Here is the input.
Amino acid sequence: MSKLDAQSTLKHLRNRYRLVVMNEDTYEEVVKFKLSRMSVYIALSTLFVLLVGLTLALIVFTPLKYYLPGVGYGNAKQIKEYRLLKLRTDSIEQSLLFKQKYIDDLQKILKGTVVKIDTNKLELPKVDVDLK
Here is the structure.
């Protein structure tokens, strides 16, 4: 394998090509472009930089930045309020689950569908009571 030297690479980048867009029915040339690999590379690089710049401008100059968690534009007060709301929500949800279980168990008892018989034998200590 031969090494690519800088002169041949630069020569390949500067070779001119023609891109022709033709009408399929009439074979009429609609548009034609003279391109080189260098011009295509520069055009695509410019397009990429513009898209990245527009995206960053959209995030920085609009309120969209407050909705992105990784950007870090939220202040400490909002973070503290968020954590407090999360704790409250979790405790309310747990309380609701306990109350619903209580109501379900109460309904089962009132309907008579749950009859639990205590099968544990209680061993009570004997107490000597002197009654005089």
